[in-house]
Structure formats: structure tokens, C-alpha cells
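TA notes. Do not distribute before section.
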Amino acid sequence: MGVLKEETRMSISRKLGILVFFAVPGIIGGGIIYHIFDGNYLPVFIYETILLLIAGAFFSK
């Protein structure tokens, strides 16, 4: 049972690392996309959706 608990803890820390890994490009990249498209939010939503889909693919593993 102790090994299972450690695997779960490692899994949670890995998932948090993935969230941080995708949060930074989400925030910074979203601002860059917003600036490139002159304040239009639609490309930002598309960019964020793509990032969420990629992050979801990592979470499903």
C-alpha cells in the first residue's frame, strides 16, 4: 500500500508540473497573440483552446 501512495503522490506532482508548463505559455503566449492580432480575442481563445487540448492529452496518460 505504501508504494501505491508514493505513485499517486508522484502522479499529482507530475500533473502540477504539466499545469505550470502550460500555464506560462498560456499567459505569455496569450498576450503575444492578443498584441499581434490588434486586440482581437478570438485568436487568443483559439490559441488557449489548442493549449488546453494538448494539456488534456498529457493528463490522459
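Switch to the second chain here.
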Amino acid sequence: MIQVRIHDGTLSVHFPSWTRLFVKAGRVDVPLEAIADVHHLDQPLTAAKGLRSGLVVSGYIKVGTWTSFGGVKRLVAAQRGVPGVRIVLRHRVAGVDELILGVQDAQEIRRRLTRVQR
């Protein structure tokens, strides 16, 4: 679904062409120093709650932005059966406070980002 790269002090998330309509970007770059915390999610679909602008196929896929009732804005790209990561940012980057990404190598991404934070 999406590709995540960590290079040159930046986390780059590349979205496939069909998702760009919903996330309103082809790529999002986050400076590693802007990352406050990283969590592994067994079921990333359940982490996206609130008001949405994007695509939902109930129980299968969520792509777009979700804003919680507390005002936290999340960029979400997740699908059923794919583990994920929640990346909490120190401040808004690319208009969002958090990223919820469904990626097969979620544990490895969490491990690498946690190591960089230290």
C-alpha cells in the first residue's frame, strides 16, 4: 500500500496514486527530530477515530485524515490484516499531529525510529 523510508534525517511516506486523492499528497516528509513517540499497532484501523475526510470501507480500509474531538489531526493509511505504527509528532508537520500507517514491517520501522529518537 504505502512505502516508508528513513534517510537523511527524514521519514518519507510515499502513497500509491489511488490514495493521493484521499491523503491529498503523493509524499509526506517528516523530519526525524519532529517525532515525539512511536507505537506499534496490531490493528491500526481502530486507532483512527473522529471526524474524517477520506475513504472508509468499514472494517477493511481507512485512508485520509481523521480529527479527534480533542483536535488531534491524524493522517491515516491502513488496511485490515496489516500491522501499523502510530507516529506522534512534537508539532504539526504537513498539517497533521500524528501518522497512522499500515505497513508490513511495522515492528522494524518502530524499532528504527525509536533508536533514532535517543
